[in-house]
Amino acid sequence: MGVYQQKVNREYPDYDNSSNLIHGLVTEFIIFGFPSLQRYQILLFCVFLCIYIFSISGNGIIFFLVALDHRLQTPMYFFVSNLSFLDMSYTTVTIPKMLAKFSMNLDSISYTSCFLQMYFFLSLAATECFLLSVMAYDRYVAICSPLHYPTIMTKRFYILLSAAAWLSGFMIILGLLILALKLPFCGPNVIHHYYCDHPPLLQLACADTSFNVVVGSSMGAFIILISFTFIVVSYIKIIITILKIASHDGRKKTFSTCASHFAVVNVFYLPLIFMYIRPTASYSSDVDSLVAMCYTVLTPMMNPIIYSLRNKDIKDSFKKNIKRWF
Predict the structure, then answer these.
(1) In 3D, which of 62, 49, 38 has the Cα closest to residue 91?
(2) What pTM was estimated for this model as a whole?
(3) Given phi > 0 = left and psi -120 to 50 = alpha, else beta, which region is 24?
(4) How far is residue 96 from each of residues 88, 210, 225, 286, measured CA to CA in Å?
(5) Closest Cα to residue 85, out of 48, 135, 116, 124?
(6) What confidence tens digit (pLDDT) does each residue in 242-261 have?
């Protein structure tokens, strides 16, 4: 922390932490962002603004195409539209605050806003884990039990699966939020990250956080590993089923229906496992900020590319609606 504190002192030479304390407790936090890139604020603003616009527009297009085109109103595309809406929410929780910091040096965030940002971010991340598991189950049923697919994946059932993913994601993080809110924060209040996240917040607490670390790591392991294992098992069964198809074209066509989802899973889960399944609260600002960008920024940006470039139905629907609108 000493090296980072020297960087903070250089960046905020006139900053007085005592003015942000009431009865010895922190009332706001400072988002320090990327410690090694403080000189490139304008460049970072331009990069993240482009990423944010692309993510919102790309995911928004997919969401509205599924809602407007009756040909896309199937279980698979219903889950894809859920993922698009989730990714729009995901980026909106973190990137606007980053843009405000890079463009106007608005790097302070209130105590309440910081914990709300942490809660919504972690809840949306958990929801995406559960939603990707549901999508894997949908592909498993479609490929391994195609004759029973219409009777299993009824409209009522796939809506319930989606609702369960969203509800579970937001409910399971409540315990983590309550435990964190009970911690005293009496300074320092500089978060060495570009948004309020659980590990860097624990480092600022003026109390023993070992229980919080254990709970956070256990919860991360439960959500990430259970859902990831479920997805892996589903794809093992899918691959076995695909290999049994005699026709090469048949195998290629069948695998293409789940290749997009498989790509999203790999991009999302690997950095998430690195970040949240940890036995300690150790935190390296530069490395972890870059790793966090994989699932906070790059994944929401890549999802529209993955699902549109590899999906004929999405491309056909887009062309059809473009001609209708213009």
Answers:
(1) 49
(2) 0.85
(3) left
(4) 12, 32, 30, 20
(5) 124
(6) 888 767 776 676 666 667 66
The three-state secondary structure class of 173 is coil
Q: How far apart are the first and last CA of the chain?
A: 56
Which pLDDT tens digit goes with each residue over 40-95?
788 888 988 999 999 999 999 999 999 888 888 899 899 999 999 999 998 999 89
Closest to 87 (Cα-Cα) out of 119, 116, 115, 127: 127
188: preceding bond cis by omega (within 30 degrees): yes
Chain-centroid distance of CA 63 in Å reads: 17
Residue-range domains of the chain with CATH: 2-325 (1.20.1070.10)
| Inter-residue contact 104 to 38 (CB < 8 Å) | no
CA dist list (Å): 9 to 12, 67, 320: 5, 51, 56
Contact 261, 139 (CB under 8 A): yes
**Cβ–Cβ under 8 Å, residues 199 and 283:** yes
125 class by beta-carbon count within 10 Å (0-12 exposed, 13-18 middle, 19+ buried):
buried
The token duo for 320 is: 């059809």
> DSSP letter string over 174-198?
HHHHHHHHTS---S--EESSSS--H
Token pair for residue 237? 């069964």
